[in-house]
UniProtKB/TrEMBL annotation:
Residues 20-40 are annotated as: Disordered. This is TBC1 domain family member 20. SUPFAM superfamilies: Ypt/Rab-GAP domain of gyp1p. It comes from Sinanodonta woodiana (Chinese pond mussel). SMART domains: TBC (SM00164). The keyword Transmembrane helix applies. The keyword tRNA processing does not apply. One of its GO terms (cellular component) is membrane. Residues 72-258 form the Rab-GAP TBC domain. It is a multi-pass membrane protein. Coiled coil: none annotated.
Amino acid sequence: MTAVKEISMISKRFGDEFCSEEASKNNNSRQSVKRNKEFNKSEKWQNIEKTLEQDPVDVSSLKQFAISPGGLLDDELRKEIWPKLLDVDVDNIPPKPGIEVLHGHRDYNQVVLDVNRSLKRFPPGMDENIRLGLQDQLVDLIMRVLVNHDELHYYQGYHDICVTFLLVVGEDVAFALVDKLSLNHLRDFMDANMDRTKHILNYLYPIVGKSNPELREFMERSEVGTVFSLSWLITWYGHVLNDLRQIVRFYDFFIACHPLMPIYLAAAIVLHRADEILACECEMCFVHGLLSKIPQDLPFEQLISKAGDLYLQYPPADLAYDAILNFQKTQSYAKARSKNLQKFTRNKKIDKKHWFIFDHDRKNGFLKFTFWTVTTAVVSAAVIAYLRSFEWEW
């Protein structure tokens, strides 16, 4: 399948869950919030409860509550509303398979390793016995999904999403929610390779470029690529944020929106930090170092609103061609780097005490090969090695 068809499938597979009617309502809601400067939490809570009392419940209204400022406000409300947003029947959740089935899955050992490294995702000060019990539940939750769908492949970062649902709704409901999401919002991350995940990352520069051409040009000139945002995307920001309250607020937003919304949020974050980025030295290592960490004090509600605006202004279908061009450019640069490195290692003897510096003509599609490029490549490789659980083709 061609890259064109692959990227088109990403933007069309799920349909436009952010339908025009809901988008209009959301836009009106944002304008109202801008006028009032802040929303009334008590009033919103009452409106949510009134909606939940309806039979049948108006799911469209629940989506708007999830998207609008403050999200779903409280974990007790999330326990009730998340299943409704995903059309999950919490009264008919399949029973857990036997231990021998869960432990016999091809990914079991990798899942256990990752879960054992996920201590920071549990609330600080939690009793060790409770935490160990939750880690066991987390392993079982993940394995239930994988056993249920043999076509799905585990990836490092998936456990960061699963633990969030576990902490909010408990194992059984978390399994049902993640099971549904794994076939929809998360599906492209769960292939045997990362081709479709990389295609999604190719939307970042087109979105940024539409809003700030200067910033896109600077980032492309720095050769920073998109790997800095990979963990944001595949963990729904669960791995890079410390505050569980902020993480679940993002989950409200993502569950209620189009599956590509996390990449729009990534673009919103990059655009918000434009001044910092443009003030940075235009070298890969410096720009990557700046972007690879998300400040914990960003105005996240504003960024959610910005991401929604970006989606409305530049829907995925309108960006598909630009994403393809970005993909082709990335492939061209990768081939040039590989060819360059092969030539370097074949024809040059490396003095262990020194680094050679090469400058190639950018007009011919070559990239600078410097000490900093090598250093950043090593750092990027470490990031990739941490995130991957399979021998994906990069």
